């Protein structure tokens, strides 16, 4: 089995992006040889890594954060903090009547600040969900890959969550947007046992191995059934 070690952002300025998300989430900064990292101060079971990249952003990201609010005042405070730290409001077609704030971090990565009363994320913390564009099949894949149970499976929409808590990971089902190059966000998985055996298991579940410049001695670059890149660490 593998565990989700980190959610990785490609970043033009890793230190600046890590500073932004540390301020928004209240997580602790940590050293990272490839950029900058944050460790959670809540029940989120994975780190955030910001990795140096010169690649341009192409279209909307396949993954975005949904941040929760306990009250209308907290939603307003979160939005104000985002703006103070260098984020901004963006329009992705949500319309003037939307009750959630659609925002972007300094690198243009989209995320949402949800209003109070979201029942689906009622038992989650401030980082309520990693909301993903993806098929039902990819939700099933990640459930098996991480050993996280499905907590939603209706109308081709799926969601999983660690048995230890933390955010839900959701997939919206069809239509899935076409892939416009390498994703700016990806998962790093760490094997609990033999890395070679874990690689074989992931391939049997439907992953494919990629030839990529991301590849290094300490990782294998793979893609899930929707073609989204992720890395299996060798340690």
Automatic annotation (TrEMBL):
Domain VOC: 123-235
Alphabetized PROSITE patterns for the sequence: VOC
A matching Pfam family: Glyoxalase_6
InterPro entries in the cross-refs: Glyas_Bleomycin-R_OHBP_Dase, Glyoxalase_6, VOC_core
CDD domains on file: VOC
Protein name as it appears in the record: VOC domain-containing protein
Record organism: Actinocatenispora sera
């Amino acid at each position: 089995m593998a565990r989700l070690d980190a959610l990785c952002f490609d970043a033009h300025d890793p230190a600046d992006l890590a500073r932004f998300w540390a301020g928004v989430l209240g997580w602790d900064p940590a050293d990272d040889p490839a950029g900058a990292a944050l460790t959670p101060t809540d029940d989120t079971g994975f780190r955030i890594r910001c990795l140096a990249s010169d690649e341009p952003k192409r279209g909307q990201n396949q993954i975005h954060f949904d941040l929760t609010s306990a009250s209308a005042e907290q939603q307003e405070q979160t939005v104000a903090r985002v703006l103070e730290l260098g984020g901004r409001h963006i329009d992705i077609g949500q319309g003037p009547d939307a009750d959630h704030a659609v925002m972007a971090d300094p690198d243009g990565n989209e995320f949402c600040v949800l209003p109070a009363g979201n029942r689906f994320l009622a038992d989650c913390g401030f980082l309520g969900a990693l909301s993903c564009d993806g098929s039902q099949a990819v939700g099933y894949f990640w459930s098996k890959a991480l050993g996280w149970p499905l907590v939603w499976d209706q109308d081709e929409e799926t969601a999983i969550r660690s048995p230890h808590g933390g955010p839900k990971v959701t997939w919206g089902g069809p239509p899935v947007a076409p892939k416009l190059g390498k994703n700016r966000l990806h998962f790093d998985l760490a094997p609990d046992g033999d890395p070679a055996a874990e690689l074989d298991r992931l391939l049997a579940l439907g992953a494919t191995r990629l030839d990529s410049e991301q590849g290094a001695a300490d990782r294998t670059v793979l893609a899930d059934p929707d073609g989204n890149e992720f890395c299996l660490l060798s340690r």
